[in-house]
Design goal:
The protein is of the alpha/beta class. It has five helices and seven strands, in the order E-E-H-E-H-E-H-E-E-H-E-H. It has a seven-stranded mixed beta sheet, with helices on both faces.
């Protein structure tokens, strides 16, 4: 199976896509679901915005750690990136430009969000990574070509986290800054592997600024 995530459902909330003035793509974590992550559409609600959440095959975007050699996560990782690209293409086909699209995710979905935007650079309405960073081993070169052209990028994570070391979050924030994003990074000492109310507040402010 070369494209395991192809054809799986994409759940929608908020404004109908053909009437929306912007869109947020929500990517769930390992063991989660599109339905789970779409529950964020309520606390992150902005009038007139569509929220789309694709489902991963087997509830995981790729089988190993995001810090594993990339080839160990294939073909799932490439399929996951292609799935996000197909969701973005669906949004653009509805008449919403990329600078009106936010890519957001939690944990494994945050890693996928970070990697997708860096690998498909453009001016987005925003990137929100709830506990995640760029994909690859800790000693990997995180360099990506292209210009993020002032894209607002929000990186939020507990420290220590059992899955995502703060060093990778910080390195991702630095790479995004080098690529021209406007970066905000927030470290929460002792916060468990979850999304806190304060992080939701930060994300909602980014959306309100993007779509206000």
């Amino acid at each position: 199976m070369n494209n395991p995530h192809e054809g799986l459902p994409i759940l929608h909330a908020g404004a109908p896509l053909n009437e929306a003035r912007g869109a947020v793509v929500l990517l769930h974590g390992r063991g989660g679901s599109a339905e789970d992550i779409l529950s964020l559409a309520s606390p992150l609600h902005v009038p007139g915005v569509a929220y789309l959440a694709p489902q991963a095959a087997g509830h995981t975007w790729y089988p190993g750690s995001f810090l594993a050699p990339r080839e160990q996560n294939e073909p799932y990782l490439s399929s996951a990136l292609a799935k996000v690209a197909s969701v973005v293409a669906e949004i653009e086909a509805a008449g919403i430009a990329r600078d009106r699209i936010v890519i957001a995710g939690f944990s494994q979905g945050a890693c996928l969000s970070s990697e997708f935007v860096a690998s498909h650079p453009a001016r987005y309405a925003g990137v929100i990574a709830f506990t995640g960073g760029l994909i690859g081993p800790l000693d990997a070169d995180l360099h990506h070509d292209g210009d993020l052209a002032g894209t607002p990028a929000l990186f939020l994570s507990g420290d220590p986290d059992p899955h995502v070391p703060w060093a990778r979050v910080a390195a991702t924030a630095a790479e995004y800054e080098r690529m021209g994003a406007v970066v905000t990074a927030r470290r929460y000492p002792g916060r468990t592997h979850t999304i806190s109310g304060e992080e939701i507040d930060h994300a909602r402010r980014l959306l309100e600024s993007a779509f206000g």
